[in-house]
């Protein structure tokens, strides 16, 4: 499997590994169809005293009691793993050695759906979490940068996997910016550890 390890010569400062062809085209198509049937919800987020819709749809699947709260305002309760998501989780663990208890789904319906600069630092994931991010559907630009540095762009392809290694969330921020280009639906699955619960 092709692997771009960005600890190495391309971009020495990035603590991520990108696997452009983690899934075959057929596997990615099948998983995309499955993911369209997940229980997507439109959540509301509170920022600077204002409540607004999150600019994407979200869902959470995972182990029992692995609730997830982010930005101190969006609270997600896990649904039981589907067989497809559990198989995918185990396949990513076999590749990376990292263990995951939850997966957060993001559905970007158009170029106007996005996620702004942030790090995933929610305490429920424990110390220095590894996060594995699988992309399906439309290819979108993903950016990552050191907290005070310049962004590097990735074009996250259908069936690709981007692994953010332990430490990445402390030193780097990432985002999926809006685009005015016409793009159709993209689904992103982020597999994460969690300190609570149990299977
Ligand atoms: O959609 C993506 O690739 C990024 C998702 C993300 O940053 C997140 O869920 O924290």
TrEMBL record:
Fe2OG dioxygenase domain segment(s): 99-195
GO molecular function: dioxygenase activity
Highest taxon listed in the record's lineage: Bacteria
One biological process term in Gene Ontology: DNA alkylation repair
InterPro entries registered for this protein in UniProt: AlkB-like, AlkB-like_sf, ALKBH3, Oxoglu/Fe-dep_dioxygenase_dom
Pfam families (alphabetical): 2OG-FeII_Oxy_2
Signal sequence bounds: none
SUPFAM superfamilies recorded: Clavaminate synthase-like
PANTHER family cross-referenced by the UniProt entry: ALPHA-KETOGLUTARATE-DEPENDENT DIOXYGENASE ALKB HOMOLOG 3
Protein name: 2OG-Fe(II) oxygenase
Lineage: Bacteria, Bacillati, Cyanobacteriota, Cyanophyceae, Nostocales
């Amino acid at each position: 499997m092709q692997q771009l390890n960005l600890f190495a010569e391309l971009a020495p400062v990035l603590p991520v590994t990108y696997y452009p062809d983690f899934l075959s085209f057929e596997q990615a198509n099948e998983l995309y169809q499955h993911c369209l049937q997940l229980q997507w919800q439109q959540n509301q987020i509170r920022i600077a005293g204002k409540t607004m819709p999150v600019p994407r749809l979200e869902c959470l699947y995972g182990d029992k009691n692995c609730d997830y709260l982010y930005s101190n305002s969006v609270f997600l309760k896990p649904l039981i793993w589907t067989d497809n998501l559990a198989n995918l989780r185990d396949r990513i663990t076999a590749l990376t050695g990292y263990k995951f208890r939850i997966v957060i789904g993001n559905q970007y319906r158009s170029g106007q759906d996005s996620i702004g600069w942030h790090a995933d630092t929610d305490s429920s994931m424990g110390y220095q979490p590894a996060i594995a991010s699988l992309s399906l559907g439309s290819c979108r630009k993903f950016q990552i940068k050191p907290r005070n540095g310049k962004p590097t762009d990735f074009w996250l392809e259908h069936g690709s996997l981007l692994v953010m290694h332990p430490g990445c969330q402390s030193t780097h921020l990432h985002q999926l910016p809006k685009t005015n280009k016409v793009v159709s639906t993209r689904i992103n699955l982020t597999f994460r550890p969690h300190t609570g619960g149990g299977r």
